[in-house]
């Protein structure tokens, strides 16, 4: 069983790739819904072709598609086109909604700058980093932030980073 955490709209999907690489003749790939599998009609068709080239089939539980039969192949191509159409409609509606909001003077997205909680973490990050008693990994673990977030917090505070060798010699 393979479970992908990434959206079907994402191009980097390691679990999907791993599953396809392990397919054997007469295997059947079972998915929940067709639009979860591919980013576009072309991508979906390419994935199903790749599955079929390995001698495997595809069954979609929600869409009642089974590409191991001629009728299933036809149904797949029809549903794939409809799934892409639905995704395009959702995208158009989203863009129209954002344009409408902008026309009314509203701005979307996150507010600029850091929240008060993030500012507090930035101060703590700077303090722990300057003390030099903990490694960057340890600080990140204690604060519950990713390394990239940690560096962004330090940058926000204007902290100049030192090389690892320099850092260990300062301790």
Strand order of the largest sheet: 1-2-3
Compute the gyration radius: what is it? 24 Å
Name the CATH superfamily assignment of the largest domain.
Answer: Resolvase, N-terminal catalytic domain
Number of helices: 7
Give the CATH architecture of the largest domain: 3-Layer(aba) Sandwich
User: What fraction, in percent, of the residue positions are helical?
Assistant: 55-70%
Instruction: Indicate the mean pLDDT.
Output: 84
SSE string, helices as H and strands as E: HEHEEHHHHH
Number of strands: 3
For the record, give the distance between the C-alpha atoms at the N and C termini, rounded to a whole number: 48 Å
Domain module count: 2
Strand-residue fraction? 5-15%
Segments where pLDDT lies below 50 for 5+ residues?
none
Question: Which structural class do the helices and strands define?
Answer: mainly alpha
